[in-house]
Amino acid sequence: MGEVGDVALSREPVVVRQAQAADTASMAEVHVRSWQETYRGVMPDAVLDDPDAVARRTRFWNTVLTDSRFSDRVAAVAEVGGAIIGIAMAQPLLSAEPQQLHVLYVLRTHHGTGAGAALLDAVLRSDKPASLWVADPNPRAQAFYRKHGFVADGNAKDEDGVREIRLRRASS
């Protein structure tokens, strides 16, 4: 596979499927590596370089995918050539609340391949309203979400030293 800038040139298609318990270790690696690629200078280095980060994310994903308390979550993975290159998780629409996107990460070498859009479609219904929190600054992610109909609603928060803004999308 060749690379141009941050975009991978792959002849293999992106395959998106429901996440399974057997995926947890690979999902954790993608989760942590994506944080390192995306949030250097935004999140504290101690968080990004924590030697236990992958083990903690593995436990997190194992709990999400196997514990009945999280059965309302929808999780998906994107693969290229059988290797997981992206992850997503959302909480579906409950009563009047919008769907909530909790996680969407794609490895940098696969940005621009359609993996992010396919993951978004796999975990959120476009005919229902949705919301998410995104790091600020994170211009690439914010542009991606704007392209998919999300707009800032004026709400912001600070979580673990990272400023986040809330984006919302009306149903289509």
UniProtKB/TrEMBL annotation:
Coiled-coil ranges from the UniProt annotation: none
Any GO molecular function: acyltransferase activity, transferring groups other than amino-acyl groups
InterPro entries in the record: Acyl_CoA_acyltransferase (IPR016181), Bact_Acetyltransf (IPR050832), GNAT_dom (IPR000182)
Domain of life: Bacteria
Domain named N-acetyltransferase: residues: 14-169
Any Pfam family hit: Acetyltransf_10
UniProt keyword list: Acyltransferase, Transferase
The protein's name in its UniProt record: GNAT superfamily N-acetyltransferase
Organism: Leifsonia soli
Taxonomic classification: Bacteria, Bacillati, Actinomycetota, Actinomycetes, Micrococcales
